[in-house]
Write a structure and sequence with these properties.
Blueprint: H1 2-7, H2 13-44, H3 50-83, H4 87-114, H5 116-122, H6 130-142, H7 144-159, H8 163-187, H9 192-216, H10 231-240, H11 242-266, H12 268-305, H13 308-335, H14 337-342, H15 350-362, H16 366-381, H17 385-411, H18 413-437, H19 439-442
Helix pairs in contact: 2-8, 2-12, 3-4, 3-6, 3-7, 3-10, 3-11, 3-12, 4-7, 5-6, 6-9, 7-8, 7-9, 8-9, 11-12, 11-17, 12-13, 12-15, 12-16, 13-16, 15-18, 16-17, 16-18, 17-18
Length: 445
């Protein structure tokens, strides 16, 4: 099968890059077209309107986090069963995963629409920007299931070894999103509601391909099978994928904290500036999430097949590649600093000054983010949701929250921007400790 051939190959320094590149490109492209969303909003609605995207970020992070949790946890179980030759059981797990996702989507939509106003206020909406947030919030929340499925199915398709296909499908969705941003906002004058609708339609590209791949063409190494409900398996999948969920969810919660702190330090202008910084942080994290999502199935497959030597080799190569990606990403973003901020705000404005300061201060986070993301993802691949979840929770919530409030209290606005690199540095020590502790059990060193 194509999936087994891709995952069982003898990886080298360059062949591993070739294998992970489509996944990295896919994730980075997601980050880029989210930035394009903000660019269109600034151009056709206004600078303060960008704050709506950041205010909604905690909510969409919840949807994406749950989708990634189910997709990552389910993918680890499915790929391991395929590696063991249990394809029918893999198909049954896939069916349970899909059913559970639909139920989650329905529940999220109902809760978000019924409690819309309290949730928006909780996210930091003020009288000055809630008029921008409301249409954006209502549109995206109505289609929460599409966001869940896009996040989940992208991971499952990559787990099939279809990294190039996944990249193309998501790229098509991103291009469609950008084109519809222009059509809905510039031509049809739908305002920020048009941006939200374009985002939803872009997400649906992955869902359409998945329907063709799994149901119509039946190209997968496993298929939808009749399966009895198994909450124990679903619970195990959610628990195993909880590290990736915690990482994304904690990121959303910390953005909520940052919204409040930015408003405290700079007012509504600061919340809009923070939106641009968040775009850049997401773009950076997408590089390393793309890498980790691609190699997780490799570790899961070789853990199931018992190939110790390949686990050790891919681990060593992964450490090197994450370091290289970190240095290159930081240097590239430093060179493009004027362009990255300038596409959103005019030079000389208060928006531009605040965003430029935050941009430069947070860049060193690139150097260690990959190591931390990979370390957590590795334990997900081995089915150790406890360690993986703890690493993500400590890094993305405990340490980052302490740095946010502690450094902001000490240094004001600059402290807010320096929290991310400080948190990555402290988290690297925790990740290194965990990797050393479990090196014998999973034999990756």
């Amino acid at each position: 099968m194509d999936q087994e051939k891709e995952l069982s190959q003898e990886f080298t320094f360059w062949s591993l890059l070739k294998f992970v590149a489509p996944s990295i490109f896919t994730f980075v492209f997601i980050g880029v077209y989210q930035m394009v969303d903000g660019l269109f909003i600034e151009r056709y609605v206004g600078e303060l309107a960008i704050s709506a995207v950041n205010l909604y970020y905690p909510i969409i992070s919840l949807f994406i986090a749950v989708g990634i949790m189910i997709g990552t946890g389910g993918n680890a179980v499915i790929v391991r069963k395929v590696g063991e030759g249990k394809r029918k059981e893999a198909g049954q797990t896939f069916s349970r995963v899909m059913t559970f996702t639909v139920i989650c989507g329905i529940v999220f939509t109902a809760v978000c629409l019924i409690f819309a106003d309290p949730i928006m206020r909780l996210c930091g909406a003020t009288d000055g920007n809630i008029e921008y947030l409301r249409p954006y919030y209502m549109t995206l929340s109505t289609f929460s299931l599409a966001i869940l499925l896009q996040s989940e199915l992208g991971i499952l398709i990559i787990g099939e070894g279809k990294t190039v296909v996944a990249a193309i499908v998501i790229m098509i969705g991103g291009v469609l999103n950008c084109v519809l941003d222009y059509v809905f906002m510039a031509k049809l004058h739908m305002g920020i509601r048009g941006a939200a609708l374009a985002t939803v339609i872009g997400y649906c590209s992955t869902i359409v391909y998945a329907v063709w791949f799994y149901i119509i063409a039946r190209k997968s190494s496993y298929h939808l099978e009749l399966a009895k409900p198994d909450m124990k398996e679903i619970g195990g999948i959610c628990f195993n994928g909880s590290s990736d969920m915690i990482s994304n969810l904690a990121e959303g919660i910390t953005v909520l904290f940052m919204n409040h702190l930015a408003y405290r330090c700079y007012g509504e202008v600061g919340v809009s500036a923070l939106a641009v910084i968040t775009y850049v942080q997401v773009l950076i994290s997408m590089v390393f999430m793309g890498y980790t999502s691609a190699v997780e199935p490799v570790f899961s497959f070789h853990y199931g097949s018992g190939n110790v030597e390949m686990r050790k080799r891919v681990f060593r190569l992964s450490i090197w590649w994450n370091l290289i990606f970190g240095v290159v990403t930081m240097m590239l973003l430093f060179v493009l600093r004027g362009f990255m901020v300038g596409i959103f705000f005019k030079e000389g404005t208060e928006f531009y000054r605040i965003a430029s300061l935050g941009y430069l201060i947070m860049l060193p986070a690139c150097l260690l983010m990959g190591f931390n993301v990979f370390g957590s993802g590795l334990f997900t691949a081995f089915g150790n949701g406890v360690v993986s979840g703890l690493l993500s929770f400590i890094r993305s919530f405990v340490i980052l929250s302490c740095c946010l409030y502690g450094l902001t209290a000490l240094f004001g606005g600059p402290g807010l921007w320096s929290a991310c690199p400080a948190a990555e540095l402290l988290s690297a020590f925790v990740t290194a400790y965990a990797l050393n502790k479990y090196r014998s059990k999973y034999q990756y060193l």
